[in-house]
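The instructor's notes for this session suggest beginning with a concrete chain rather than abstract definitions. Hand out the sequence below and ask the class to guess, before any prediction is shown, which regions might be ordered.
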Amino acid sequence: MGMLTWENGQYLLDGQPYRIISGAIHYFRVVPEYWEDRLLKLKACGFNTVETYIAWNVHEPQEGEFNFSGMADVASFIELAGKLGLHVIVRPSPFICAEWEFGGLPGWLLGYGEIRLRCSDPLYLSKVDPYYDELIPQLVPLLSSHGGPILAVQVENEYGSYGNDHAYLEYLREGLVRRGVDVLLFTSDGPTDEMLLGGTLDDVHATVNFGSRVEESFRKYREYRTEEPLMVMEFWNGWFDHWMEDHHVRDAADVAEVLDEMLEKGASMNMYMFHGGTNFGFYSGANHIHAYEPTTTSYDYDAPLTEWGDKTEKYEAVRRVLSKHGFAPGCAFPESVTKAAYGKVALSEMAGLFTEPNLQHLSEPIKSVCIQPMEKYGQSYGFIMYSTFIQGPRHGQQLHIQEVRDRAQVFLDGRPLGVVERWNSKPLNITVPADGARLDILVENMGRINYGPLIRDPKGITEGVRIDNQFLYDWTIRTLPLEPEKLSSLSYTPVTQEGQALQEEPPMPERDDAGLPGFYRGCFEVEEIGDTFLRFDGWTKGVAWINGFNLGRYWKAGPQKALYIPGPLLRKGENELVLFELHGRPECCVAELSDQPDLGQTAAVDEAVLNFVQDGEDK
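After discussion, reveal the predicted structure:
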């Protein structure tokens, strides 16, 4: 499809002047059945290129075990883009940020306690190399030098926002070249002295990322690169959401105005995001600027194309600007996907987490003198439970969970004692009877930090548990990644009208199901398949599965009020919905499948947010 080069401040495609008009779509945030729909909608808006990150943790979820199928089939996504007449920009750096769990790094790296991330640490590089040995050979046949659609490949991602190890950048660059990547290589960083100094290589094309302040940003870039083409590798046209805050929006007219200014200056650009998609499963990341802030399951990003693939006012505003600058729609806009309301689903069966034999089916117990984070047990995602027996009597003391990552529910003799959260870590009052008590602590990994100096983010309890100043030892630990094959082994019992599960055998002595974690299952019939939205009104916090597929986290803390369910995850006939509710059943044990999304209360993205990277804080 042509070789991309540059000279005299201009891109050339097979020797002819060319401008890149790209939009970001992440294959790992969209079900494969909808890849073509989203790509055609990109083309219909006037874009000629699609950009995607490549997420290491998606492709090597366990060390040495690689996955390039289904939603992880990146080669098929790139091939499809080429067949549809789109060029492709690929960003396969080991670290991608992207508000993705651990910035795309696999959690198992943290099992090596001494490892140093994103630098020339030999241990770290020894983990990158086998991954690249699997990944890069799949990309080489798709390079434009081989007749494929890939025009350019990124070396690392916003590295100047993290470090200045140029030997590390050079190692990655050489690794790409050695494995056969012979198209244009580039870096991308915020337009500040610090970031351009730390994140670039003299002989590698440099691009910049920003959301506004076009003149100022390009002026700073030109202080470092006087001859290279102007390329905004990330033009932030919206923003992402954290739990416990409003849904971010950015005015369409503002986006169009900045885009117009950018194009008037002759720049090429990649719109981040054109279509955000969804953080399915446990893959939503987190930020930590002043406090830990976990990202929602939705990655709608207030992009021109919604999370569910519908066009917006912003889409039309962008299309008009692109047409003004000579980038006409390349095809007709595909018909919108049908939305379906399947009504209320009675979650009529329940499997208590603490109820025999569910915990035994979900996890094998591990004995340990000390508390350890989940990565030490080969676990990357989900939950982990720490249990011990406390001798009594103890009166009016305080239970401290030292360095919880990220949210702990504490139970004493099977009853909720309280919640300890990373962003609001306070001790719990505890009294233990003379004959002692069992302590269970269920900890949720709500997403590893994906940007900045705190990305080293092991999960579980990283220091220890103590009563006043006395540390507790002798623990039984259960890893709970909640993989589909494990969930299929749960023993469900019917839920009574009052919501309590009927037990063939009585529950553990002095244990009450009220407020305890449990799995709630219900079935519903589908005649005509369409996209739908799972509303979780009345439920508190947990994780949802549809037909064994992990949809992601829900939480009444908002702003997200419903989880998007793409139609291809459904099947004609009977479908199964499971909620792992962390705080006990609601009054009415039902969920609703609606044809209307709900992203909650909105708040405008302000100028400061759009320039976090430039201010050295956050993307």
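Then share the key points. Confidence is low (pLDDT under 50) at residues 502-512, 613-619. The two ends are 32 Å apart (CA to CA).
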